[in-house]
Amino acid sequence: MATHKASFVLLAVIELLIALFLITGTRKPLDAAPARTGEDIALKDFAALHPIDAHVHVFRTAQEFQEMLDQEHLTVLNILVVDDTWPPRNHLQPQIDDAWKLVRSSKGHVFLCTTFDGYKFTSPTFTDDSVHQINRDLKDGAIAVKIWKTFGMEIKDSAGKYVLPDDPKLKPIYADIAAHGKTLLAHLAEPDLAWEPLDVKKDPLAQYYIENPQWYMLDKPGVPSKKTILEARDRVLEQNPRLRVVGVHLGSMEKDLDDIGRHLDKYPNFAVDTAARMEYLMYGDREKVSAFLVKYQDRVIYGTDLDVNPDVNVAESVKSWKQTYINDWKFFATDETFPVEGRQVHGLKLPATVLQKIYRTNAQHWIKGLK
Ligand SMILES: [Zn+2]
After folding, report:
1. What 3-state DSSP class applies to 324?
2. Nearest Cα to 149, choosing from 305, 284, 362, 279?
3. What is this structure's pTM?
4. Theoretical Cys-Cys bridge with 267: which of 43, 135, 237, 329, CB 3.0 to 4.6 Å?
């Protein structure tokens, strides 16, 4: 009897173990999702704002890219430039045609910032042609116009003199953009290093100018100084108070937050974006950067300068886009310390109201038409 009872208990225990195994066995796949990492959380919190990246360059229409836009509730402003040193950007009209294909297939996630062709500057019809083409693009739905660093650093007039951004031939273009209530995105000048001796050990950016000597100004005869170019930009701000201007890349004043602040104080029609200059904020004095972003919380627009080039693996591009969004979010929104390009960065943990402005509403305010 005792033996019988013992084997009954043993059987019951075995059955219980099997049942437990089955329960945990069947439940396991449901619970098996990996624990959410800090990076997952960062990307999810970023997406929750329905963020706008107001500075990208996308040359492809690709499924993987669209999936990222959908997943991250991301809106981007795709910016065109004409660059005679890189074939995909050499001609404007094919870029515009491609850009519209991207916009139209993006389900409302991609907007277009058109540009005009500065290389035609010496043509007697340059101004009229530019205004005509800009107006056509605005009518088609472009929401902003870009002026590029070629003005001040590459384009010359018929006398062989570098053309500055306040050249009289550009005035009707600015007036036209303002009359349409649209925004000028101004990438004028470059980081200071373009006018300084290069030392890769001192500043890794030197490598860019070694690889892109066309933008290295130090030894070029007749080239304006950075100061001269930015003063011409400032005269455009002064002369066109009704023109909203976004100085991209921190308005090329990347090393001097006080100088950016003085410009924002002086020119109510001026804002800046963070594109490709986040490291100056990340590696800067944390208290100072934080105070700057809080003080000028209505004037700083999030942008990255990320690109999808014609010849790339889009999946790889998407991966690096996401990593940039994660790092930038951790910096602006969290108190975490984490490495970026081998250097430790300490997050600013900005207030939610400031994050909302930098990541979304400032772009909508300064670049009308962004949704
Ligand atoms: Zn750019």
Report:
1. helix
2. 305
3. 0.89
4. 237
Please tell me the distance between residue 7's alpha carbon and the centre of ligand 1 in angstroms: 77
Task: Report CA-CA distances (Å) from 41 to 161, 326, 349.
Answer: 52, 9, 14
CA distance 211 to 156: 23
- Classify domain 38-366 by CATH number: 3.20.20.140
Task: Tell me the C-alpha distance between 323 and 319, whole Å.
Answer: 6
Host H or E run for residue 340: strand 337-340
Amino acid at residue number 357? K
pLDDT 10s digits, 42-76 = 999 999 999 999 999 999 999 999 999 999 999 99
The span from the CA of 178 to the CA of 143, in Å, is 12
User: What is the whole-number distance in angstroms between the Cα of residue 185 and the centre of ligand 1?
Assistant: 10
Rounded to the nearest whole angstrom, what is the distance from the C-alpha of residue 21 to the centroid of ligand 1?
A: 57
* Tens-place pLDDT, residues 191-236: 999 999 999 998 889 999 999 999 999 989 999 999 999 999 999 9
**Measured distance CA(320)–CA(103) in Å, rounded:** 22
